[in-house]
Amino acid sequence: MTAVGIDLDARAYELDRAHVFHSWSAQAALNPLVLAGGRGCRVWDHAGREYLDFASQMVNVNIGHQHPVVTAAIADQAARLTTIGPAVANLQRGEAAQRITALAPEGFDKVFFTNGGADANENAIRMARLHTGRDKVLSTYRSYHGNTGAAVVATGDWRRMPNEYARGHVHFFGPYLYRSEFWSSSAEEESERALRHLERVVQCEGPDTIAAILLESVPGTAGILVPPPGYLAGVRAIADRYGIVLILDEVMCGFGRTGRWFAFDGYDVIPDLITFAKGVNSGYVPVGGVVISEPIARTFDERVFPGGLTYSGHPLAAASIVAALDVMADEGIVANAERIGRTVIGPALSRVAEDVPLIGEVRGEGVFWAIELVADRETRQPLSAAAMARIKADLVARGVLPFLADNRIHFAPPCVVTEAEVHEAAAALREVLTALPEEIR
Ligand SMILES: Cc1ncc(COP(=O)(O)O)c(C=O)c1O
Q: What family does the Swiss-Prot or TrEMBL record give for this protein (predicted)?
């Protein structure tokens, strides 16, 4: 560790605490980690303290930190044309839209670019409302869709309640066998009962009033809730029965996270609108968007779409999308996520769960895994907030950055993670959970 590095860490921390207002937090008690550099799955501070990034920051750095091809593409575009308005045609913007539509199902030929995931959902909702002439949007209680007007009210978790100023939002329960709302005892039962519940909600709300059903293909922050067999196809069938637009939110689960390009590719379903952000360019430049199926795109051939953004299709973001998607294809990064999830992460976490009674369930796919922590395996009582805070601090002290949500640790490393890195993180997890003092569970 260098003296200069230690000084820079101290200055970064002081400036942050003095001037930076942080998301979703009471500000007084914050104690942010200083990070200054990274490469692949590792990040470090100025003094050279290293961490394994098993959160991929906000579950977005799918190709790992500082991929040289992508940083070079951004630098190259910055040297050529740093910014340009949304109304002009720009080569990188067109190439980015082409790359994305090439990965989407047939008939998805248009992309509306936004600045991130929330405004992708915001605009998808607007498209669905204008396309159907209906108003309501149905989404699940266990969901996060972003921090803007309609997206935050479509969100199911606690972040919705202080922000409920948008209208027309109705919530329902999706499948979650470990904590079933439907008294189910099998994945098949959970799927069938959750579908029946959704159809009853549609009927009781009035099908002619419902514009869209908005779902994360695999709910992420809400618990990495891999959908049971038949669920997403069943939602598609309900949407079709009542003329409702199906929006699948792929912001967190898309672009390799599940070991597939789109998470829904594994579930026998094709939506009407796909929203994306995060993994599309691994967050190297802020960007998101909506991939639009042909019937909805046609609605706006002769009719104005009343929406837009100064930075829609920003050239730095577009160049980073092109480079990131090309790198992912050329280097087999999505295939690595699939293989390592199936053959290394799943088995490694299951072995920890066999020995550590605090783990109630391990679930996931690709590089998208939840470890559900419980005070008691029988009652499934969630582990306390104090215990979770202690676990987080202990993991960070052992050099592993986890993503924590409620009583869960989400293991979501970059898609380029290696077998050795998984074993390193799993060993730290085992140590931390085994050493957790009895009195704070
Ligand atoms: C599923 C999902 N949708 C939307 C968003 C919002 O994306 P952003 O923070 O880029 O606005 C997130 C962010 O975590 C997300 O996980």
A: Belongs to the class-III pyridoxal-phosphate-dependent aminotransferase family.
